[in-house]
Structures are given as structure tokens and as C-alpha cells.
Amino acid sequence: MAEAQNIPVGSTTAGQIAVAAESTVATRMSAPPSFDVADFPVPHGREEEWRFTPLERLRGLHDGTAVVTGDGVKVDVQAPEGVTVETVGRDDARIGKAGTPVDRIAAQAYSAFEKAGVVTVPKETVLTEPIRIAVHGEGGVRYGHQVVELGAFAEAVVVIDHTGDAVLAANVDYILGDGAKLTVVSVQDWDDKAVHVAQHNALIGRDASFKSVVVTFGGDLVRLHPRVSYAGPGGEVELLGLYFTDAGQHQEHRLLVDHNVPHCKSNVVYKGALQGDNAHAVWIGDVLIEAKAEGTDTYEMNRNLVLTDGARVDSVPNLEIETGEIVGAGHASATGRFDDEQLFYLMARGIPADEARRLVVRGFFAELVQQIGVDDIEERLLAKIDEELEASV
Amino acid sequence: MATLEIRDLHVTVEADNATKEILKGVDLTVKQGETHAIMGPNGSGKSTLAYSLAGHPKYTITSGTVTLDGEDVLEMSVDERARAGLFLAMQYPVEVPGVSVSNFLRTSATAIRGEAPKLRTWVKEVKEAMERLNMDSSFAERNVNEGFSGGEKKRHEILQLELLKPKVAILDETDSGLDVDALRIVSEGVNRVRETGEVGTLLITHYTRILRYIKPDHVHVFSGGRIVESGGAELADKLENEGYEAYTKGGASE
Ligand SMILES: Nc1ncnc2c1ncn2[C@@H]1O[C@H](COP(=O)(O)OP(=O)(O)OP(=O)(O)O)[C@@H](O)[C@H]1O
Ligand SMILES: [Mg+2]
């Protein structure tokens, strides 16, 4: 068995490289991936993959007690011409092709959903307008499944918007054909009480490129698990994330990029701002470079900006390298704090306190927002960031 | 003509659950166009005076008054003081990650001037000011003070002084940590602002070295939280030769 290099949990910017005997990414999960919820024990909270999550706030998604209520979550898809939008049964072959549930809630969602949404962009179709999927909660419990498939050389932008109040567990599959280009923006703009747990599986075709933008503002508890694997060489992946965690919110982003084929790229950048008592952000970034994945080029980064006392960040980058024949691999994680001295400095230059805070937070997110590349989303994000700040001062 | 008047200023800090009085009755008047040097040993309270004037929240004014053109400075918030015309070049400028120097300067100038400077002339103004201070133009895109050397931080403070054109500038040990070349460049910056005759300067320093470049009109010896002696430029020469011993041994500092 290949020896793995593993950068230990909890390391910050300059982690040392330790040598582990086997993959910690795989062994950290308490059960192997499965579509069947019965294959996963009910978590008790000390498992590696659950230790940061307040189980008591999951509203029963993790132990089978969350029962579907009516149509308390509405899904509306708007797609430009040329796109196929379907609602299909569980036996549709496209479902589950991009990845398998890796934890109890993802498997629960898979075991419990009734109909799946499938959006297909035929091969060589290049869209000029985004596909918009609006998921609006009206207080209900729902298990969902959504598939977005792009044929070879198709190009599309998909915006998935989550609003309202809901208890939602879902799997979302992105299947990219050879040479396809997909940008997905998933916005979690939930009301205060919402609970949202989802696994995203992206399967990247040969020479395809995938950009995922995850934006989390709202909800009581949001736990997202974007995962990527490659179906052929030449794939390029960019995973961008932005979160603004307020008092009492738990926002958890767990990522896995599995470099399972040679000559693929991945770049992960997640940034979060936190403010208020018991604001809790968790970021787990797992990047695995398998022994056969020669020529891999990967970088992952998580930055957090803590604006007030009482907020907490857990940031765990984990880079595991089974081959030395790579172009590059790096990771960084850092948490900074906007403190009274910085505030004083800016105010001593005439800048009022609220504007000083805005300057710092906008500056912190600016570069990331510019990389999104979907105009109306960029504007909305900046407005939303300002709104979050207003609430605090 | 702008005048800063400090009368019988007493200031305390909280340290280790005890209240400690640092300033024990400071009296000083600084008029526009004048340069006052405040010289004193380490720990005598010079920075405390500077921070108290700027409104740092750690320092509590227990008695006394500070006015700028008759307006009560102590009633103002930190940003209001800056907009009223007070400027503090800090002994230890603060790093502000995520905020670029160019964005910071423009936001600050907008706040102080009351309107956003016109972009074209502003870019030129900043560029020229940076050139005069021997600052590479790449500094504009770096984050405020982040990773700046000690000397670069001080130049950045003086850059702000030149751009913000305050009525009263308090320079807290702007000379410390500078080599001879940097000291000359920074002093020239201060002198350019002084030569306008529009600014009153309070130059806080431990050493007389900077006074070779910036000639003070008045020199005050600071010890034990107050001014213990005042005179003209000749007082600095006396300190150069004799040090602070006469003042500290004399019991002025508790
Ligand atoms: N925020 C604070 N908390 C506790 N003590 C303080 C604080 N600020 C100042 N002091 C104390 O007050 C005294 C004066 O400090 P200050 O920094 O004003 O001196 P200084 O004259 O500027 O010294 P230096 O020449 O070293 O810059 C010192 O004993 C210092 O430890
Ligand atoms: Mg000092």
C-alpha cells in the first residue's frame, strides 16, 4: 500500500508533513459510502465527521425522526431554451452517478426522497443565460435530490437559491461531460430557523471545468459537503466559498477533492466572516492525491475573519499525497480578528466605526467575490454583506 | 488660527485590576504653525498623552480639558477628532489585513475632506506623495501596514499626514527605528507639511537626533506624567549632553 503524506488536523498556515500509514480521509468516516441509510449508525456526536456539528439542532435529520411534511419546500426551475427540465422517479439511471452518500444524513436523504429533479444541458449547447433553481422553504421537512448534467462541450451557469424556512437534507449531483464547463452558485440565504444539510457530488469529465461557488448567509444550521472526483484527465476545478456567520448560527462546509486520475487541477478558496455570540463556522478541506494521480496541481485555502468576541472557527485543512509526481500541492488556513486596535487606527483617520468595519469586511471578501464571474450574484453578495454588517452595528 | 489647548490633563489606565494614573496634570498649548518637541524617558507617559488626545478607548480622562479652537475634543469620538483636524502618527502603526493602502487612503481622505477626492487628481496626488517619501508604488496595493518594515510603517504614517493635512499633528516617535536615510526622508515629509504654516506639530521623541532635521520652536521635558521643564531649542542640546537623569532622579517620576 502506498504511503500517504498527511498534514495533521488543526494545522494552520505552515503545517508540517507527517507520514501516515493509510488514508486518513477514508478512515475518518465512521462507515463506508452507501446509498442505504441503514448502513450508517445513528451518530452520537463524537465521530470524526460529526464532532463539530450540534446534533440536537439537526431536527432529527440524523436519526430518522424528521418526517416529511406536505409540500413545505417549493422548487422552481427556470431554464433557457435548449435545456431539459424533468422530474423523475428513483430508478432514473442518472441519479447517484456522480457520487455515493458518505454520511448518515446524505444516505437518509437518498433513502427518503421521492422524486428527483434533473436538469440536462445537451452536448455542445452553450447557454448565455443562467439556469435558476429556486428552493423556497415554507416551514416543511424535505428530502431532495437534484441532478445537473452537461453533455460534452456544453457550457452553463446554474444558480441555486435557498430561501425561507425549511428542514432540508439533499444530495446534488453535477455530471460534466468531456470538455463541459459548469459554474454553479449555491446561495444559502435561509431564514433564521432553517436547517440545511447537503452533499454535492461533482464528477468531472475529461478536460471539463467546474466552478462551484457556495455562499452561506442564513439558517440556524447549514452543513454542506461539496465533493469532487474526476472521470478523466485534464479536469479543472475551482471551489469557492463565502460565509457570514452570525450570532447563534452553525455553518459547516466540508470539502473533498479526490484526485483520482492524473493531470487534473483543483483550487479551493473559502472565506468566512463571523460575528456575535456562538457564531460557529467549521471548515474541513480534504484533498486527496491518489497514487495514480500524477501531474496533479492543487491548492486549498481557508481564511476567517472574526469580527467580535464569542464567535468560534474550526478550520481543518487536510492534504494527503500518495504520489510525489505532482505539479504542486499546497494548503493554508488562517483566522484573523478585527480588533479594537484596528478599529481605532481606522477611526483615527476620520473613518466612522461602521464604515471601518465595512471597509475591512468588504476588503476581506473583495477578491473572492470578483472571482465569481456572475454579475448579478456579485452585486447581490456585496449588498448582502453590507446588510449583515448593518445588523451588527 | 487653530489652537490645541491642553489644561491640567489627568489620565488613568486599567492594568491588572488596578487603576493607574499615568498623566498627572499636563498643560500645553500648540498653535498652528508652531512645532513643539516633547522629550522624555521611556515610560514617562508620552504615548499616553498622544493616545489620549486621539481618543484611544483604553485611556480614561479623569480631569482636565482639551480644546481645539475652543471645541471640546474630549467630547468627540475618535473619528470626529480626526475630522476636526487632529492627526496622530503612531509609534506602532496597526496592521489592517484585507484593506489595501489605496482603498484606505481614499476612504480616509473622503471622510476628512467631507467629499470623495476626484479620482484623476487623487491618483496623481497619492503617487507623487509616495514618490517624495521614496515609497514604491506597489505599496498602494498592499494591505495597510501588513508586513511593512518599521521604517515603511513610519513613511506610511507621514504619507497620511501629507495627504490629510491636519490642523494639529501629533507625531509619536516617528523617528524610532529609522536609519539615517529614512530619518531624513521622513523628516523632509514632516517639514513639507510644516512649511505650509497650516499645521501645529507636537513631536514626541526620546532622542534629539530628529531635531537636527526638524527644528522645534519649543522643547518640553516630559517626566512622571507631566511637563517638568519647557524652553527653546537650546533645551534639546542640554538634554543631548546631560540626558534625562536630572529629571528622573529629581523624583518627578514617582
Ligand atoms: N494600555 C496600558 N495599559 C497598562 N499600562 C499602560 C498602558 N499604556 C501605558 N501604560 C503605562 O503607562 C506608562 C507610560 O507609558 P507610555 O507608553 O505613555 O510611555 P512613553 O513615554 O510613551 O514611553 P516610550 O518612550 O517607551 O514610548 C508606562 O508605565 C506604561 O506601562
Ligand atoms: Mg511611547
TrEMBL record, chain A:
Superkingdom: Bacteria
Residues in SUF system FeS cluster assembly SufBD core domain copies: 138-364
SUPFAM superfamilies recorded: Stabilizer of iron transporter SufD
InterPro entries according to UniProt: Fe-S_cluster_assembly_SufBD (IPR055346), SUF_FeS_clus_asmbl_SufBD_core (IPR000825), SUF_FeS_clus_asmbl_SufBD_sf (IPR037284), SUF_FeS_clus_asmbl_SufD (IPR011542)
Biological processes per GO annotation: iron-sulfur cluster assembly
Sequence similarity: Belongs to the iron-sulfur cluster assembly SufBD family.
This protein's name: SUF system FeS cluster assembly SufBD core domain-containing protein
Source organism (scientific name): Streptomyces regalis
Lineage: Bacteria, Bacillati, Actinomycetota, Actinomycetes, Kitasatosporales
TrEMBL record, chain B:
Pfam families according to UniProt: ABC_tran
Domain of life: Bacteria
GO molecular function per UniProt: ATP binding; ATP hydrolysis activity
Sequence ranges assigned to domain ABC transporter in this UniProt record: 4-249
Sequence similarity: Belongs to the ABC transporter superfamily. Ycf16 family.
PANTHER family: ABC TRANSPORTER I FAMILY MEMBER 6, CHLOROPLASTIC
Name used for this protein in its record: ABC transporter ATP-binding protein
Gene coding for it: sufC
